């Protein structure tokens, strides 16, 4: 008898599972899903392996369902192959949890797949649908979504409200559902178990009032990501609910599309009390012409929270408004200013300059600063002084009579590639990094054009130094003679 036949069935099942690529990659190549192909090959080696393969559900649940051997929309025959593979794997998956992902199909093409998947709805752990066939979910029996944890539903932008959607109470019977992502032109378009949700994503740039109404329904939210339009500053809310408290919300991301001159970004924050908030991300539409920011609204919002991380993307509050933000950022540890050219100036760096003799210290816990812009206006000496004022080596800290009143830099990322830095500034930044500062950025090596200048004419030494530094970091610029300070 071949030694492999003496291996116990339980151990052989584990061997079969290890033989399949379990890296978690659910992508398919031109020959089909790797995991499915491997399972089929193993099941055809011999009768014993076939029995083991067919009775090992783990071999058939390595990918999302339905299975796309080729894109199902390409032909009727291709859809039939995918349909047969999906049905076979579902039947062999036992009762293990599965992930369902169905999109980019017309209603007619999606219907047979959805019908087969609904037969196994008791196995769904995650569901992602991008189709007009959502109404078919009404066929799910009561208690058929006991394992469902995450839902991502998307309707085409041209869709109109469907009266049947308001009658679809299927998700109300999903006791484990915690994460919901909705993409539609209309909110809400499906009943959801809002009070039990911990993660909510609203895609579609809804008016702010429906977004606020949806947040009010979710007292257990931990993470909220919302795409919305701006709020008219003088427009009162549709319902006078005062300040809404979400006691568990730790992360809030707002992507705001400003359409008219009278719209603002901050009125929604005025209505939110988020005592547990740690991360705030504000992303303004790139094409907005009139950015309006109420420092008073934002300050009051800060005072009701304990924000440790703020990211401003394509936002350009006035220097005074940004200074107000920093002045009240007593818990802030991480600040990112991306594509905010009006914010990256001398006022920002002077505001962050630490002086032990000052009675008030701005952002005393700030450890990470990330700035990125292609059009900034500042003096590099001011930037250098600010950096030096908040960073010390271990030896320097040990010699101080007491700890400084502000945190030491942990990471600085200066993504301002268009800056024409001087040689002195470049050398200073390199020395700081050599002394231990985690400094990332793009600082091109300057070569003097004067032929009589020995340093400038000897480009070989400069290039060698630059190439060594660049060679140790593949993320550096492709430009010759540049030095990347990425860690």
TrEMBL record:
Residues 448-481 have a biased composition (Acidic residues). Residues 441-487 are annotated as: Disordered. It comes from the Eukaryota. InterPro entries: LRR_dom_sf. This is F-box domain-containing protein. It comes from Mycena belliarum. The lineage of its organism: Eukaryota, Fungi, Dikarya, Basidiomycota, Agaricomycotina.
């Amino acid at each position: 008898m071949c030694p492999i036949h003496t291996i116990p069935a339980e151990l052989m099942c584990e061997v079969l599972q290890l033989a399949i690529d379990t890296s978690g990659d659910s992508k398919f190549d031109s020959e089909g899903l790797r995991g499915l192909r491997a399972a089929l090959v193993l099941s055809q080696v011999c009768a014993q392996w076939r029995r083991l393969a067919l009775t090992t559900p783990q071999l058939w649940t390595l990918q999302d369902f339905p299975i796309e051997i080729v894109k199902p929309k390409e032909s009727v025959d291709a859809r039939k192959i995918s349909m047969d593979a999906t049905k076979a794997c579902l039947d062999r998956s036992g009762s293990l949890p599965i992930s369902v992902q169905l999109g980019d199909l017309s209603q007619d093409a999606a219907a047979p797949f959805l019908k087969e998947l609904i037969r196994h709805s008791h196995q769904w752990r995650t569901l992602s649908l991008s189709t007009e066939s959502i109404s078919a979910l009404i066929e799910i029996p009561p208690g058929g979504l006991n394992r469902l944890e995450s839902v991502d539903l998307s309707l085409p932008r041209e869709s109109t409200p469907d009266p049947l959607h308001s009658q679809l109470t299927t998700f109300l019977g999903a006791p484990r559902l915690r994460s919901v992502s909705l993409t539609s032109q209309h909110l809400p378009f499906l009943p959801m178990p809002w009070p039990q949700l911990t993660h909510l994503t609203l895609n579609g740039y809804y008016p702010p009032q429906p977004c606020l109404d949806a947040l009010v329904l979710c007292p257990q939210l931990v993470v909220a990501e919302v795409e919305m339009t701006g709020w008219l500053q003088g427009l009162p809310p549709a319902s006078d609910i005062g300040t809404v408290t979400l006691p568990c919300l730790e992360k809030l991301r707002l992507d705001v599309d400003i359409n008219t001159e009278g719209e603002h970004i901050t009125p929604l924050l005025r209505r939110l009390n988020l005592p547990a908030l740690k991360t705030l991300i504000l992303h303004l539409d790139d094409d907005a012409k009139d950015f309006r920011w109420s420092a008073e609204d934002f300050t009051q919002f800060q005072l009701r929270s304990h924000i440790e991380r703020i990211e401003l993307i394509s936002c350009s509050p006035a220097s005074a408004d940004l200074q107000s933000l920093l002045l009240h950022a007593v818990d802030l540890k991480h600040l990112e200013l991306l594509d905010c050219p009006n914010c990256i100036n001398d006022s920002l760096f002077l505001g962050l300059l630490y002086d032990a003799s000052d009675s008030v210290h701005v952002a005393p816990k700030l450890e990470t600063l990330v700035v990125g812009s292609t059009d900034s206006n500042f003096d590099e000496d001011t930037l250098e002084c600010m950096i030096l004022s908040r960073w010390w080596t271990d030896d320097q800290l040990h010699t101080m009579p007491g700890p400084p009143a502000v945190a030491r830099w942990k990471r600085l990322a200066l993504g301002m590639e268009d800056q024409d830095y001087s040689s002195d500034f470049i050398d200073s930044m390199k020395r700081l990094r050599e002394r231990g500062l985690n400094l990332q950025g793009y600082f091109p090596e300057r070569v003097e054009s004067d032929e009589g200048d020995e340093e400038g004419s000897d480009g070989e030494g400069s290039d060698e130094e630059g190439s060594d530094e660049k060679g140790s970091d593949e993320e550096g610029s492709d430009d010759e003679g540049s030095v990347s300070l990425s860690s």
